[in-house]
Amino acid sequence: MNLIENIREGLRSIAGNRLRTILTSLIIAIGITSLVGILTAIDGIQNSVNSSFEGLGANTFSIVARQDAFRRGGRVQKQDEPIDYFDAIQFKRRFSLGTTIAVSTVVNGAAQAKFGSRKTNPNVQLTGGDEAYLAVKGFSLLSGRNLTQNDLEYGLNVAVIGSEVAATLFEKKINPLNQAIRVSGSQYKVVGVLAKKGGFTGGGDDRIILIPLDNARALAGSQKLSFDITASAPSVADQDEAIGEAQGVMRLVRHDQLGKPDSFEIQRADDLAKETENITGYLRIGGFGIGFITLLGASIALLNIMLVSVTERTREIGIRKSLGATPKRIREQFLIEAIVICILGGLGGVVLGLGIGNLIALVISQGEGGEGGFVVPWAWMVLGLVVCIGVGLFAGIYPAVRASKLDPIEALRYE
């Protein structure tokens, strides 16, 4: 009996026990679905996060004050003094490296906008900014215009609103442009509407209301504001030079003493992206561990079923041995059956894992305001099938060896 005939015999045995084959394959499919589904979902979420960072651009960096205490050299340092308006304006005037610079501040991170009887939830971010804010932050206009120099110079009560704010207040029934809305006790004329941006931070970029910087300062009154400086270098190649120059200029503006640490922090857009990728890497390891444990349970179930199969087919094994089948051929048949069952379950698990993983990623991405896309993780799919074959070998080797060692005379007497 050659290998081809052994494969045919194994397939006939599988076809002859369809219910057992289906149930066994289903056990493997659930394990592979867990493995491929978790890893696919993580890849899909990572793609959504990457698309959110792409809106900022790889050549963008921000200068901010640390708002929490931090540890340096084993000692806890106090939080930085906020970057005030004069620090930000001085930096913008002194920095002359051809970089686009935007100065902004958040007046109220939980504001509520009103138009007539309609109002938003109190989760609107009221931001004061300049004419460069939209470009540097990666926003694009759906309709209307950006803030102009005239708006900024005179601190006019005009506003550019996010897509979610516009949808909530005007419900696509009224053109938002030139309408008057009320937020934080002041009335503003809508001059622009932003296109939907989304983001991994919960879609906050679509719940923004941008007003002129000086208008924001007047609205804040005695409230102490902290200003953020965001810069976009001419190209990625110029970013390191721009960051080095920015650090020197900001130390002069902030009067940081020589030998003392910076009283501010420079955040690079690509650093944030790399940090999220590192976190995602740990999630992949955890996901693989969870999926592997599930598969281990499935392999034990398959091992038990194959042992039952050996017991049920004792007489068949005795007949085959009496007709000249060698122990090697007996082992091959049972291994082939275990592997085929695992591959059938693996293919089903890969399809289910692909669909469920992408569904989870889509739901999470949309819930966080990001853009989900269908991900086909070929590496995880191939890994799933390879693991299936490994599970088949693991679960089939012992029953196959046990079957091959049966005494043909005793096997023929078995009832």
From TrEMBL:
GO cellular component: plasma membrane
GO molecular function: transmembrane transporter activity
Record's keyword annotation contains Transmembrane: yes
Transmembrane segments: 21-42, 285-310, 338-364, 376-398
Residue span, MacB-like periplasmic core domain: 21-246
InterPro entries: ABC3_permease_C, MacB_PCD, Macrolide_Exporter_MacB
One Pfam family per UniProt: FtsX
Location in or out of the cell: Cell membrane
Domain ABC3 transporter permease C-terminal intervals: 290-408
Secretion signal, residue range per the UniProt entry: none
Superkingdom, natural source: Bacteria
Protein topology in the membrane: Multi-pass membrane protein
Alphabetically ordered keywords of this record: Cell membrane, Membrane, Transmembrane, Transmembrane helix
Family listed: Belongs to the ABC-4 integral membrane protein family.
Protein name: ABC transporter permease
